[in-house]
Amino acid sequence: MRPLRFGPARPDRPAPGVGDLVILAGIAALLYAGVRLAFFAPRAIAGPEISTAPAALPWYALLSIGRMSIAYALSLGFSLAYGYAAARNPGARKLLMPLLDVLQSVPILSFLPVVLLGLSAVLPQRVAAELAAIVLIFTSQAWNLTFSFYQSLTTIPGELKEAAAIFRLSPWMRLRVLELPFAAIGLIWNSVMSWAGGWFFLMASEIFKVGSHDFRLPGLGSYLQTAASTGNVRAVVSGVLALVTIVVVLDQLVWRPLLAWATRFKIETVEGEQPATSWFRDALDGSWVASHVRARVLLPLRDWADRLSTAPPADAAARAGNARSSRWPARAAGLAVLAAVAAGALGAVSLLASLRLAAWGTLAAGLGATFARVAASLAVALAWTLPVGYVIGTRPRLARVLQPLAQVLAAVPATALFPVILLFMIRLPFGLNLAAVLLMLMGTQWYLLFNIIAGASAIPRDLRDTTDLLRLGRVARWRTLILPSLFPFIVTGAITASGGAWNASIVAEFVEFGGTTHKTLGVGSAIASATNDADYAMLLAGTLALVGTVVLINRTFWGRLYRLAEERFRME
Q: What confidence score (pLDDT) does residue 129 get?
């Protein structure tokens, strides 16, 4: 039995072109502007005093959760707007998807020192550090949510789209009754991943220092880092327990109720096995307060939005006149932006010209070494997340045990454990190289796992029953049903996991531990060394080289797989 393929094949995504060069020039201009601002930053910035007393943990936990919540709200809003625009507008897609490739490939850990120093030149230190932390967490949460929502919108079954067209649903009604429900399972599982991955970058942002500039922020990350650096084992254990407690509480009060609620949107023609349950959701359903909020606030808001979406459109002639009148200011703004990008790009070129040829050779060799580590970490991650994710996604009883465990393991910042791992592995042959691959794996494997769980939980029960009736063997079942069904989710998870692995190379290939610096050949090591030495030319070169490499891989490899997933492995 051959694997099911749905829909006609379309041309692959175009190869990198002028648009990509313009986007990369914009990135270079932004980096150069940050570097120029960094020269005006104060020469020394004193950081806050971080307490390791257990009594400080509740306040630090609230601060960290607040930063994560703000970043997640921004990420979700950005993902819905960006993914919808890219999926619904073919003209906008030609710009937005290449731009998303660039954005998710930008190593924010190399951007962070420039952003912090630049912001500190124009803003108070605490405000600059808080903004930079939220931006850093946002970049760890937004891209996988955006890719998930876009992938869901582009794989909606054709008959559902035809039904929406027959009923003449407005864009808002189509979004509310078709597109958001169809994307709900993937969005919720990627939200779980976004929170888990956010802890990794939260810790990095709360303990950041650049030379004599101390940008630390009070929070769980700085608490754990201070406790570890002072050898306070009791404080380290208390901090880890606080982090695990937060993860478990969020799972019970937020994510498990949402996953139980989202099972209603699963496409099935027969009743599935035991649906996901949540004691907190059951308690809310029977709550007098919750029912009144739903009846008095949520439903009236929904009805108001529905009525607004069906209001008669404005006069076509008036809209055309408004469009013509607003066209010239938009063109003038676009020309101004292009001029600024060109000026910044020229400045970046002049800064890059100061690098010697040997530095470029080292950078090229580092790109090859880091690419090998990223590929190895992705291969290992896929080998174990594919079977485990399918089992969790298709067995609700097992999921009730393994899902919280996976969230806890994903939420424990790998950077907190890396010094301990390095202590044991540094004496082994290729010790630092193996440790770097392991850190990349620890930080990125969860993107694949949670996407595969979302894909497995979305497989209709009737299709699985059909494979049972046909008495397909295990290999045939995986070839004809499971892998084709999971393919779009695997691609989405792999794209974000690979971007995370390239980003994690900055902390995996250059480590300061026990008063000694350990580093290995790699582009991440080059970026980290340049940050440590305030070598802005090398920092700019390393960042642009990493971004360009990841964009090239995304457009020539992952882009083709994404197109294949969109066109040939859609549930019809």
A: 80
CA dist list (Å): 339 to 58, 275, 320, 336, 350 = 49, 56, 29, 5, 17
Q: Single out the residue of 422, 446, 445 nearest to residue 507, CA to CA.
A: 422
pLDDT band at 386 (very low <50, low <70, confident <90, very high): very high
Lowest mean pLDDT among 85-94, 486-495, 510-519: 510-519
Instruction: Supply angle C-alpha 373, 375, 381, rounded to 5.
Output: 100
* DSSP per position, 339-380: HHHHHHHHHHHHHHTTS-HHHHHHHHHHHHHHHHHHHHHHHH
Distance in angstroms between the alpha carbons of the first and the last residue of the chain: 18
Q: Using CA atoms, how far apart are residues 455 and 460, in angstroms rounded to an integer? A: 10
Residues 6 or more apart whose Cβ sits within 8 Å of residue 502: 105, 107, 370, 374, 524, 546, 549, 550
Q: Are 371 and 431 in contact (CB under 8 A)?
A: no
Q: Would you kindly state where each structural domain of the chain is located, as residue ranges?
A: 38-267+362-568
Over residues 448-501, the pLDDT tens digits come to: 988 898 888 878 777 887 887 888 888 888 888 888 888 888 988 888 888 778
Residues 6+ apart with CB under 8 A from 427: none
Tokens representing 118 are 């630049």
